Amino acid sequence: MVDKVIHIYVISDSAGETASKLAQAAIAQYDVLDLEVQIVRRTFVSDKETLMDVLQEAKELDAIVLQTLIVDELVVIAKQFCQENGIFSIDPLTPLVDEISRRSETEPNRLPGAMHFLNKNYFDRIAAMEFAVKYDDGKDPRGFLQADIILLGVSRTSKTPLSLFLANKNLKVANLPLIPEAHIPSQLWEVNPKKIVGLTNDPKILNVIRKERMIAYGLNPDTAYSNINKIKEELEFANNLYKKIGCPVINVAQRSIEETASIILSELGLEDRSYYHS
Amino acid sequence: MVDKVIHIYVISDSAGETASKLAQAAIAQYDVLDLEVQIVRRTFVSDKETLMDVLQEAKELDAIVLQTLIVDELVVIAKQFCQENGIFSIDPLTPLVDEISRRSETEPNRLPGAMHFLNKNYFDRIAAMEFAVKYDDGKDPRGFLQADIILLGVSRTSKTPLSLFLANKNLKVANLPLIPEAHIPSQLWEVNPKKIVGLTNDPKILNVIRKERMIAYGLNPDTAYSNINKIKEELEFANNLYKKIGCPVINVAQRSIEETASIILSELGLEDRSYYHS
């Protein structure tokens, strides 16, 4: 165990989302007890002076520099400074941009924050996020008819976070909680079943999660909500509905949101639309 | 203009979020009319056979390989295959992981999907997303007292997408739409003003957005909602409230969600908590 803090300087002329993801993926490979890493975000760096200040800071802390600058002049400055000062630096974007340019015989526009341009794709994503919130939890079944995906599931099968995660990929998602006593909205039968996904979970896991939820709410953990036989009944009700609809069924137990979302996209044959930057 | 499609193979033993972000950042640098790029996601690749099939596919398409494999054996196979077959490949993760290991004298755990481990940090993020949905749009002002951030703003100042974006960074965000006629919930005065951010926008932009919204709803665009004087009144009401609270004010005009979120974090002195993987 080394007690020295490792600083990672995320430097970007935009929001630094790419470099941050990369830094997170790397540090996730270590046990937090073994490692003290501090990620310092220096984002929206758009001029030489600011960049030089940031690089100087990084040098003083003996930081790892992770930069995704796109403005040519800034890329050159960062590269030269790191080289001259023996700073370990990573520039994951330049080789990829260079290769795309070589193959397409097209110059990059070198505009910072091009990913966040206020274009149609961007507004579609915002609209998808608002859609997910509006049509969460079966609030308005009319949303089913406009949705790209409808998620069905009993309580605690990750419907809300999955809807939001998929919204970030420009997909309009509505979700409906399944409760045996409740009425299934008629709109569900008007939807193409190829847009519907049934979520399920292991009864034992649901039992534990729901007990914890009751405790968190300051309630008795042994209510009908957390009763194992009641949970099995609910899951059976849900599975019978899924069979009737003929939709794919995904068990979310032991799966992260990212993994379940990936399976949903592949089951429904949907593309991640966030790539199209038209 | 070249009409050949450029394939980018995103290969990961996890969800491939890091590599996808990198690919998106690169292609965002080109005009979509000049370039035909197809991103092919091959995620959750966890064994040699699948990896070899994927690499073979990439070879046949003369694809650019962008891999964030973490399992040592798979990294070696991918590297060797790309080298032997002259495939242009990028591995942004290995140099960073190697450098962290060198500095910390600690071996990485080499577990795929470590970012999505079902640990406390992960469940905190899910809880933050559910919080954002639950306390969106002033639905329940009791949320103000539990929130890390409270966003205030008139209609169409990006409150909902900002709340969701910040939730992804493990921050609990509640938001309240400001309408001059409506009552300000008493809970707002109990909150530490250092948790509050006031959002504003340019009246002309709001005018255009709101007219479009009315048209999208099939309504007359020239209602009180889109009236420029009415909008100015609303913004004045909001600005007076912000002064009374003493909170920072951010104009969202011409800013992406990512940029505004970045400003909010820096104004409130908040860290992006999604980094801490304890």
Automatic annotation (TrEMBL), chains A, B:
**Gene Ontology MF: a single term:** phosphotransferase activity, phosphate group as acceptor
Q: Which domain of life is it from?
A: Bacteria
**Record EC number:** 2.7.11.32, 2.7.4.27
Q: Which UniProt keywords apply?
A: Kinase, Nucleotide-binding, Pyruvate, Serine/threonine-protein kinase, Transferase
Q: Has UniProt tagged this entry with the keyword Nucleotide-binding? A: yes
- Keyword Hydrolase among record annotations: no
Entries under InterPro entries matching the protein: Kinase-pyrophosphorylase (IPR005177), PPDK_reg (IPR026565)
Residues annotated as binding ADP are 153-160
- Which Pfam families has this protein been placed in? Kinase-PPPase
Q: Give the catalytic activity.
A: N(tele)-phospho-L-histidyl/O-phospho-L-threonyl-[pyruvate, phosphate dikinase] + phosphate + H(+) = N(tele)-phospho-L-histidyl/L-threonyl-[pyruvate, phosphate dikinase] + diphosphate; N(tele)-phospho-L-histidyl/L-threonyl-[pyruvate, phosphate dikinase] + ADP = N(tele)-phospho-L-histidyl/O-phospho-L-threonyl-[pyruvate, phosphate dikinase] + AMP + H(+)
What does the similarity note say? Belongs to the pyruvate, phosphate/water dikinase regulatory protein family. PDRP subfamily.
Q: Describe the task this protein carries out.
A: Bifunctional serine/threonine kinase and phosphorylase involved in the regulation of the pyruvate, phosphate dikinase (PPDK) by catalyzing its phosphorylation/dephosphorylation.
What name does UniProt use for this protein?
Answer: Putative pyruvate, phosphate dikinase regulatory protein
Lineage of origin? Bacteria, Bacillati, Bacillota, Bacilli, Lactobacillales
